[in-house]
Design goal:
With about 60 residues, the chain is mainly alpha-helical. It contains three helices and no strands.
């Protein structure tokens, strides 16, 4: 799918202070998760309809 939405490096740098800290478990890629959340909201999709390139929909829903 070529029309996927990805956050820019500048925007990720601005958002990084608001990410929760690591507490034992490694975190999944924040850029991937946040980009998909924006994509799903912009396109009025359900979580289960999110493109597979962003990862499992359960991770997105939980985040």
């Amino acid at each position: 799918m070529s029309n996927l939405y990805w956050l820019t490096n500048e925007l990720m740098a601005r958002l990084r202070p608001y990410f929760p800290k690591n507490h034992g478990r490694p975190r999944v890629d924040d850029r991937r998760v946040l980009s998909d959340i924006v994509f799903v909201n912009r396109n009025a999709l359900r979580w289960c309809d999110a493109p597979k390139d962003y990862g499992p929909h359960k991770t997105l829903y939980n985040r």
